[in-house]
Predict the 3D structure of the following.
Amino acid sequence: MRFGPRTWSVASTLAIVVLAAGGWVPAALPTALPTALPTALSIRPGADHASARVRDLAARRGLRLGTAVDDGALRNEADYRRALARQFNMVEPENVMKWAIIHPGPDRYDFTAADRLVAFARRHRMTLRGHNLAWNMQNPDWLEHGHFSRDQAISILRDHIHTVVGRYRGKIAQWDVVNEALDAAGRYTDNPWLRAIGPDYIAMAFRFAHEADPRADLYYNDYDLTYPGPKADHILGLVAGLKRAGVPIDGLGVQFHVFPGTVSVSGVGEQMRRVRRLGLDYAITEFDVALRLPPTPAELRQQADITSGLLRTCLGARNCRTFNLWGFTDRHSWIPQFFPGFGAATPTDGQLRPKPAWVAVVDALELESRA
Ligand code: XIL
C-alpha cells in the first residue's frame, strides 16, 4: 500500500506473439490496444485462442489465477460476472470479509455479502481466498475504540476467527490470517490486537484459524516485499520464527501493489526460493501495476512486462501456485482513489477489453513450462 522510491528495472523481455483474449469482448478488442501493439501481434498458426478459457490454461499449469471481487459489481454487472467466471479459477473478496463489514457490532455478524461470493465461487467451481482475520484497517468502531483487556481481546479474536473461518470450513482454501502486521520500517503496526495482546496475537490468530479449519492454508500477508530492504527482512524473519515455533502457517502472501520501477523480478525469484527454504508457499495476493493517468502505450507495455515477468517467475517456482489480481478491470480498482493521479492498474480497461497486460498473462500461461 505504500511504496518505496526504488528504481529496479523489470527484467522481462518476452515479446508479445499471441493475442488470446479468450472471450472478453472479442469484437471490440483492437480499439483497446495502444497503436504500437498490433504490429507486434500475430496469432500463432493453429492456436484456437477464441475458445480458450484462461482459467483452464491456468489450471493446466497448476496455478490458481484469481482476482479480488468488488461486491457491487458482483451484484449489478452481468458482464463482470461473466468475465469473472470465465477467466478465473479463484476469487477473493476485496472488502466483504473484513471486520467492519462481517462483524459490525460486538454481537452482530453480517454474512450477506460474503455468502454471495462464496455461493458464486461454488457455482462456478472456483477456489476461494479469504481476506482477512486481523488487520489495522477497516475495523468496526466498537473494536478500534474498545479498550479491551488482554483476555477480552483474545476472546474476541478467538470468537471471530472461529465463527468466520468455521462458517466457511471446507469452502475457503486459503486465508490471509494476519495482514500488514509490520509497518514500512519493519516495526509492529499499531492495531487493537497489538495494543491489548502484544505481538503474540499473530501466532494466536493462526492457531485459532487452524482450529476452525485444519485443512485451510494459512497465510501471513503483507506489502513492501517486492524489493530488498528492512521490511522484507523483518517479514521473512517473522514468518521463519512462526514456522520454527510450530505455528500453523502455510505461506507468505505478498501483495504486489507496484508501480513500474518498484519491482525487481529477479529479486522476487530469489525471495521465492528463500521462502521455500523456510518450508512455506509464496502467494502473489494483490497484484496491480499503477500507472500515471493517462498511460502511454509505452507504460502499458511496461505494465505488461512486469505482469509477464512476475507470472513467469511464479510459474517457474515450485512454491508459487497463486497469482491473484487486485481487481481485473479498471472499472473497479482501488488505485485512483488511494493514489490520486494514478490508475489503469489492472489488465483490462473499463469495458473489460484486454490491455497488453492481459495478453501477457495468457502468453505466460501458454508459453512457459513449469521448472
Ligand atoms: C483495499 C480495497 O481495495 C479498497 O476497496 C478499500 O477501500 C481499502 O482496502 N492491502 C490490502 C487490501 O490488504 O485489503 C486493501 O484493499 C489494499 C491494500
The pocket of XIL is lined by residues 1, 94-95, 179, 255, 286, 334 (CB under 6 Å).
